[in-house]
Amino acid sequence: MLPAVETPTKLRGGRYTVVGTLGDGAQATTLEAVDGSAGGRRVAIKRFSVRGAESWKDVELAEREARVLARLDHPGLPRYVEHFEENGDLYLVMEKIEGDSVAARLKERGPMSEAETRAMLHELSAALEYLHERDVPIVHRDIKPTNVIRRRDGSFVLIDFGAVRDKLRPEGGSTVVGTFGYMAPEQFQGRALPASDVYAAGVTALAALTGKQPEDLPHRGLRIDVRAALRDVRPAVSEGFVRALDTMVEPDPDARPARITPLLEVEPPRAPAPAQVPHRSDRPPRDRPRGRRRRPRSPVAPYIGLLWMAWGLSWAFLHVSWGYMVLAMLPIFALSQWSQEWSRKRQAEELQREQATEQTRARVETGEPSDARVRVPSPEDDEADDENARGEREPARRARR
Hints:
Layout: E1 10-11, E2 16-24, E3 29-35, E4 41-49, H1 56-69, E5 80-86, E6 89-95, E7 99-101, H2 102-109, H3 114-132, E8 148-151, E9 156-158, H4 194-210, E10 219-220, E11 223-224, H5 226-230, H6 239-248, H7 261-265, H8 301-317, H9 322-365, H10 379-400
Antiparallel strand pairs: 1-2, 2-3, 3-4, 4-6, 5-6, 7-8, 8-9, 10-11
């Protein structure tokens, strides 16, 4: 918490009259005020005490939040009014969102329904796509029930850009910012990506459906066990929504999508109606669209993320010297390279097996007996076919003579 600082009653030369406090955070206090120059509308003013900051990075994040909000305009985000400095403090003025946070709603009324949670994710998805698809992608980095407000009309707004990141660097190196349990694993490595916000939105949805904090949800290794978490939720959550949430909280950022909307639009598969199988000659040509092939995971892959997480926590909280951190990183990096090479080899082997199986299936469908054994043809098979062909032609040659 910030040190106790006297709250002014007037700001910006009397333009804003402070009428209360909306909340206290680790870095700032949010005040409720009346804007006298705009017909008495209510505004939220975020005050950051520069004198109480623990490091220059805290000040930089406060300035970044004002800079980012100033260039945003979306109904799912708070509207920026202005920012200024007064008496050594930084102030960010935004519209006041009338409503309660998802966290307050869960505390008051219990878990949300699937329909309401879906509506929340749809609107979060629209706001995140607006942020992520800008010329310079913006990553929120701190999506959680406290930072999602439900308006009185039922719509949702994503607030609190105090941890926002507006410059993506492939090599990482960012400060670890966020809330434990809602942060994606790669954020502990300083790699905040658009897919990191998808992970946090998925965990927020699970918290909304179950009323539980992330640490209280069942896990399998580093992965949240979505099916186990939703097993006792009544009424039961649809299968399609379970799969969508399971995809959103995938620990591997390379396997996790960067957009939420396509996941919510997928309907559960329906059981095919019984029908007679047509004769081979009547079957249409096979058309097998191939999607993105998922690379096999090596036996050590689940533990690499855990090692990186331990490495990141050591760097962030134990203040280990940089030289030791580099030495500790080398074996983890070598293990990661070996795991990727193992996965590439297995993927190549699977592709070869599938191609051989496709060739054999094509031979069966073009005239071989239906009970022919499917296997990969070898050079010996070709030689045997040639011998049989010569044997069949020899009697015909003698008859002609």
